Structure formats: C-alpha cells, structure tokens
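Researcher: Here's a chain I'd like modeled. Treat it as a single chain, no partners, no ligands.
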Amino acid sequence: MQAVSPGEKSKSESGLSGELKNLFAVAENYPELKASQNFLSLQNQLSEIEDQIQFARRYYNGAVRDYNIRVESFPSMLIASVFNFRKEEFFEITLTSERESTKVDFK
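Model: Modeled as a single isolated chain. Structure tokens:
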C-alpha cells in the first residue's frame, strides 16, 4: 500500500499474487471449502477482478506510451521541457510466471 511508482506497485502486486496462490493451494486440501458457495463466489469474483486489472494495466501502459512519445516529440517536447515533464515508467511484470492469469478453477 506504500508503493508510489509503477515499479514498486508491480513488486507489491507480485507478493499479493504469491499469497493468493498459497490460499488456493491450501484450499485444495479442503474439499468442503472448495464446494462452498461462498468460496465459489470468491473464485468468480477473483477471475473478474483479474480481468479488470489486466485491462487497467494495458490501458495505463498505452497512456504512458502515448505520453512518452509526446514528451520526446517535436514540438510538444519544447513545452514538456519548460514544464519539466519527464518520461514515465511502464507497469511491467518481471517474472514470466506472473504474466499469466491466476488460475482459480478448482474442479
């Protein structure tokens, strides 16, 4: 929650993804939990949230790409230098295992 830059946020998100994987691994050992309507609802909600987060990442990175192009392109670079606009960093996931969506299917 203390993360400010996109790089820091991606690191903290990696930790959260790891903890979710641990939760799902623990749930595998409890068939009653897997069959619970509340847990099934949680699985569906997590799938929807992950889809929304991926959409938001793509949108953010597209906006950052467009912004960075403007900061480096003439004539907008003149205004950017006057107002001290700098290139922004992309939201990147460093580990390839984290690039894949979290699987929440326990069937």
